[in-house]
Structures are given as C-alpha cells and as structure tokens.
Design brief:
The structure is a homodimer. The first copy, chain A, starts with a helix and ends in a 6-residue tail after the last strand. The first copy, chain A, is 36% helix and 14% strand. The first copy, chain A, is globular, with a radius of gyration of 28 Å. By secondary structure, chain A is an alpha/beta fold. Chain A contains 12 helices and 18 strands. The longest helix of chain A has 32 residues. Chain A has a 7-stranded mixed beta sheet with strand order 7-13-12-11-10-8-9. A 4-stranded antiparallel beta sheet of chain A has the order 14-15-18-17, with helices on one face. Chain A has a two-stranded antiparallel ribbon with strand order 1-2. The interface between A and B is large, with 113 and 113 residues.
C-alpha cells in the first residue's frame, strides 16, 4: 500500500469516528438540556413505576394503595375481576349498578396522561388563604367561566362563583343561605325544602341531618303546589333529573320562589344542551364532568350577592374552603378539557355513554319483564332508569334484579315505588 | 516522516477518538437508563420551572398563581415585601399577627423538596370510595397510628380514626355525634356546648351556624360548673389552649361528662408532651403539625364505636369525605416526618419557634406597657399572648398595637376582655 492510500484509509476511519463523537456530544448536550429534573425526579419516577404495573386492563395500582411484602403496589381490580394482576374473572359475580362512580372516563385520562398530571411541591400553598385573602383560586374561577362559555350550558356573566366539597357541601350551603336571607328570615316557621319525586336522596338526608330550626325537608313539591300563599320554601330542581333523566323545570313559581338548580348532569355527554341555564343559583360538580368523584370538587354560580355571601360564610365555618391540592388538580383537568378544539373529552364521554346505552337497550328489548323508561329523543339521549311494564308488573324490581346478581338502587331511595330501580351505567 | 511514525500518529488519534466514542456511548446508555420518564415529564418540568423563579427569599411563585402577559408566574410576596421579585421592602408596613398561618415550616419543606413532592396522575383515584368502600386511605390511617406512637402525644390503640376537612369540620362532626348519642338523645332541651375562656372563636360561630334543635352554644364552662345535675353538655377542651398556651384540662366532670379534646397544638414544637393523651374523642390537624393549613386535613381519634359511626355519618352527608389528592399528599408528608430519626421536622420547628419567642420576649421586656403572660417553664415553652400589666393598664390592647401597625386578634374573639390580644408568631 502506498503512503497516500494508507493516509486516506486512516483519514476515513478517523473522520467516521470524529463524526460519531460529534453526534454523541450533540445527543448528550440535548439530553442534558431536556433532562434537567432535580427535586421532582423521585416523585415522577415513583408515579411512573406504579402506573406501569400491569393489571390486565381490569384494574389499576395507585401510589397510596396497599403494597405486597416486597413493597410492590397491589392492583385494585374492577368488579368481577380478581388476582394479583386482576386477570381472573369471577363467575356469577354480582354486577354493582348502584354506585354512580363515573369511572367510564378513566381511559380518557390515561390517554391524556402527560397533560393531566400535576406535580405538587411539598411547600405548595401551605397558607390558609390565597394571596387576595380568599379561599378560591382566581385561575380556577376564570377556567370555570371559560368552560361554561365554551359548552354553553350556563350563563355565568355578572354572577358570583364559589367552591365546595363536590356539590354535596354546596347543597346544604344553598339551603342555609336561602333560608337565612330575604323573605324567609322574617317567618317563624322553618323554610320548607322540597324536590320533585323521584329525587336524589341526599336532598332529604342532608337537610334532615342537622335538624336546623331554620329549615325542614318536606318531601315532594306536590305537597306545596296550589299553596301560593305559602312562599317560605326552597325547591331543588335537578336537570337532567337523577335518576330518570328528565329535563326538570321548577314546579313552584311566584314572586318569592327560591330554587336550587342541581345541574350535575347538565353536560353534553349526558344530555343535549338546548340553551344555557340562567338561574339564580346553579350547582355543578367535577365528578360528573371529568369523572373525578374522589376529588370532591364542586362549584356554585350565584346571582344574588347576599345569598353568595351567606354561602361563603357556610363554607368558611364548615370546612374553611376546598383543599389547595384539589383546586390545583381541578385547574389542570379543566385546562385539558379546554385545550385543542375543546370537544375531545365530550366526544369520548358521549361515545362511551351512547355505546353502553345501546347495549342496555338491546338486552332489555329482549325482555318482557323489564323496560327502559322512554324519553323524547330530541331532549335526552341518556337515561338510567328501568321500569317494570305490563304485562307482568313486579312490585319490587330491585329484588328481582338482585336475585340475578345485579345491584341497582331502589326507587324508594328517590321517593318513588320500588317497581322502579336505577341502574348506573357510568362505572368501569 | 517515515511510514511507521505516520501510522503511529494516525493510530493515536483514532484511538483517542474511539475512546471518546465509547465514553459517550456509555454516558448515553446510562442516561437512557436513568432518564426513562415519559408522561410525568411535562408536569415535573413545569413544577421545577415555577419553583426556580426567584422571589428574593420573601415570597414564592405557584403553579396556579397569576401569570404575566408572557405567561411567567408572578411572585406572591410575604407581608411587607412587594415588587415583581418581592425585593422591595414596604416601609411602615402593617405586621399581621392575627392570622395563624403556619408558614414558619415552609423552609423545612423546601429543604426536603425531593422526598415531599407528589406526582398526581390524571386518573388517580377517580372513584367515590376506596377499594374497601370507605372514604379513608388505609395507608394514611396506618401512618397516623405510627406518628402518634412515635411522638407519644396520643394513645390510638383500640380507637377508631376518621378524617375531616381540617379539625374545622371535625369540631361540628363531634358536636353532632355527641348530641345524638347516648344520654343526650333522651333529653328534650338541646345539648349545651361550652368551652373555657379564652377559647377558639370557631367553637362558638360554628356551633351557632346551623341553629340546630339538638345543640346550642352556651359560652364559658363556668356557666355549668356546680350544676352537676345538668349532664346534658359537651365541653371543648383545648390543650395547649389557643390563644393562651395553657395545658387545659376538662373542667366539667361526672358520669355523663362528654369532652372534645382539641389537640391541634399538642405537638413537640409548641409544647412539652408530658404524657400521651388518652381521651375518648381527640382532634388533630395537619395545619399545626406540618404547616399545611391549605390542605384542610384533620383527623379524629374516637374510642366509642357509636360516636365514631355518627361522626362518619356527618362527614358522609356533609362532604362525602376528604379529597383523594389531599389524602395522598398528607401520606407523603407524614412519611417525611417519620423518616430517618423521626425528629428532623420537630427539631426544625422547635428551633424556629424558640428563636421567635425569644425575640418577642426580648422586645417586650423593654416595654413597661405590654407584657407576655407567664407560663410555668416545665409545662409550656410556647405561648402567644401579650397582656397589659400594671402600672399602666390599656382597656383596648388591640387598638394600641394597631396604632403601631401591628394587627393582633382581640381578646373578645376568645371570650375575654380586649385588654388581652393574641399575637401569632407562626407566620412567614
């Protein structure tokens, strides 16, 4: 080999090696640039490790779940599945269609893992109040205004917003505020609290819990109808109604009518939205919007300042506001709902609900014993009630289904007969 | 140059380059191995970016804080500081010693950033209940048992534990439960709720809020003393007392005595712990233990099953439990408290409190107008009250201090005269 071809050979080898060097250096510099995590690394790694545990698609492991002797988190399985990785199907298992756990949205949040996760620092918002002295994140309040504007289900302009532990806490806050303001406070007898049957059972149990001198649960709205002289009442209006899906309107009217609109299900995945609601007191909850029932986050939209202030007073003295972790998470989740074309989550939710509803309809259409309550299609494509029809009418629909390993919720819980039963289709 | 020396030169260059290549490859492989974060990256990076914003040591930026027009989070400054990076001192500013914001522990959590952060996945615990149907994390319950065992401030064996929104929610849950169980339920008159002055003002305002038929706030315990025949009462016992730091004991005794022990401050950073408390109903809160007031997390330790069940009923109907984010965070924080020699946080907290107390004592010792209430040293090294002594007695200590730009909390708020004022020393 002559000297120049030898040199060429060396030069080629060296050039290749140097090029590889340069590529490697660029890779290292780039990775150093993006991989600059320090104090968040431990929490991030732990979360990814737990999330990577396989539960066969029938369960999930959580950061705060029980662990095996080796410290490995244990899968928490969906109903009817068991085993360390939830792979074992339980034959003849009982289907729980009682609980309204909105787990049907869990796959959506797994698909949007990156944008929906939050990292909470150990020093995040330790104080009692926000900087402005309130108990409410201004960013989250803004996101809620934007959400209703986008969805078009409630008019929030010139109204006050406050937060509570789900709509649960806000129901009683509203009853407290309305029974302490304006016309009722001069009355000697307690304000009557009513709802139209079938109604959400918590209206009754919560109102009765504290046995207040100021208000009293008085059952169905019909007990007050045609008693226009008796204006000392508060009516819960649930729209669409839980359990029967009807788009209820207020029954009791008049100059002194006070209504609490429970709009938990007034979202496009459950019902068509004919127009934005524009009522004086409207309640919403994250549970039924994004499926985060465990976060216990709800909000009230209130027109009257005095009523709003009374509700704030109730929340202050009852729990001193909603945890800052929860407000941070709700903000993150709403930002995901509002990103892109602002319809992704609603499309996912509606498609899932529609497919479940179609399956249930199909199964029940083969039955001569059970039927689904019919709702006008233009108003409501989603309902959750099964009704015993003629020719054979069961006095106790709940127990008939229970014998077939299906747990529903008895009609009596909603103030109607037990020939009705609510079957929940929002679970996993 | 001869051929062999030329070859040697090439060989050396190539060898160096290949070695660099190998090193780079090892670095890249190692970094790929440790840097395997995927869906948590976005949240982790955002959190670190916000945490890295400089607020001159007089404030902090939060993930959910307000942002500038460029989307940069704005610093939230401590009292008396202002400017975009909290570097501007406000002359003659008002010192707010009213709020009991326990921000003095914030530096501890910044020092322990890695171990105290949590990553909450978008799908974390969406359901209403835990796997066992309860609203309570078993892991967190276990950590609380361990905590009291370690600190030695409460005997939790053979007792029930439930969670609430701070001790705030649990105060009323306890009053509800005790007024609905056993001896009181047969009584026609409402159960009297009392506390020894000076007492925490929420006892009064919260008990009066709902105007229940079952219970009624009746002021100072002295109103019931020597009325042994009247056993229909609930006494709040605050130990150490807020505001005066005394290690209170129950005043009202007898066969039917029912007491709610508010032990919010019964931790080694505030008071010596002579012995574990072993009362029937004890309340604790994360706010005063770790400083996370904004998390609204408290727990009750209850001996009697019926009372426990009534309290659970109250929490269920009032808010349906404590948010899962909050329970996850509380678990993480308690695990930090319990790690290592289990004394790191308490040492930090005690040192900070001691130094503040010494400064306050020093300042007030030069005054002939104000004095600090003296507590026996072996019982209490930490107290928060300033008392107007002879020779010159101010009728309104609050307003005298207010004129000097110091906001305290009036004695009247605690059921005593305004010649007393509470100055909080736990803030930032």
């Amino acid at each position: 080999m002559d000297k120049s071809s030898m040199n060429l050979k060396w030069a080629v080898c060296l050039s290749v090696s140097v090029i590889v060097n340069l590529i490697c250096l660029v890779l290292i510099i780039c990775s150093k640039h993006t991989e600059k995590l320090s104090w968040t690394r431990e929490a991030a790694t732990t979360a990814e490790n737990v999330a990577s545990i396989s539960c066969s698609g029938h369960g999930r492991a959580y950061l705060d779940g029980l662990v095996t002797e080796n410290g490995r988190p244990i899968c928490e399985c969906n109903a009817c599945f068991t085993g360390p990785d939830c792979s074992v199907f339980i034959p003849n298992c009982v289907v729980d269609a009682d609980s309204g756990n909105p787990m049907f949205l869990e796959p959506f949040w797994k698909q949007n893992a990156g944008s929906s996760a939050i990292m909470v620092a150990g020093w995040h918002r330790m104080g009692y109040e926000f900087e402005d002295g309130s108990l409410i994140s201004k960013q989250l309040e803004t996101a809620i205004h934007k959400l209703h504007g986008t969805v078009g289900n409630a008019n929030t302009s010139n109204k006050y917003i406050l937060f509570g532990a789900g709509s649960t806490q806000l129901l009683n806050a509203a009853v407290y505020a309305l029974s302490h303001t304006a016309y009722s406070s001069s009355s000697l007898s307690p304000t009557k609290v009513v709802a139209s049957s079938p109604y959400y059972p918590v209206y009754k149990s919560q109102t009765e819990l504290l046995d207040s001198k100021k208000y009293k649960f008085s059952g169905d709205t019909s007990s007050l109808k045609n008693k226009s002289s008796d204006n000392n009442f508060i009516e819960f209006v649930t729209c669409p109604n839980n359990p029967d899906g009807h788009l209820n309107k207020a029954v009791l009217q008049g100059k002194f009518a006070r209504h609490v609109y429970d709009l938990a299900y007034y979202w496009p995945h459950y019902t068509p939205i004919p127009a934005p609601m524009d009522e004086d007191l409207m309640l919403f909850t994250l549970s039924k919007l994004t499926g985060h029932a465990g976060s216990r986050f709800g909000w009230a939209i209130v027109k009257d300042k005095a009523v709003y202030e009374r509700m704030v007073e109730y929340i202050d003295l009852n729990t001193y506001g909603v945890p800052r972790e929860t407000q941070l998470r709700a903000l993150k989740l709403l930002n995901v709902v509002l990103q892109g074309d602002k319809r992704v989550m609603f499309r996912f939710a509606h498609t899932t609900m529609k497919s479940r509803w179609e399956k249930l309809t199909e199964i029940l259409s083969t039955s001569k014993r059970f039927s689904i309550e019919q709702l006008p299609l233009q108003h409501c494509t989603f309902s959750k009630q099964v009704r015993a029809p003629s020719p054979e009418e069961d006095k106790d629909c709940y127990n008939v289904l229970r014998a077939a390993n299906i747990i529903g919720r008895k009609g009596a819980a909603f103030g109607v007969e037990n020939r009705y039963v609510r079957l929940s289709v929002v679970n996993s």
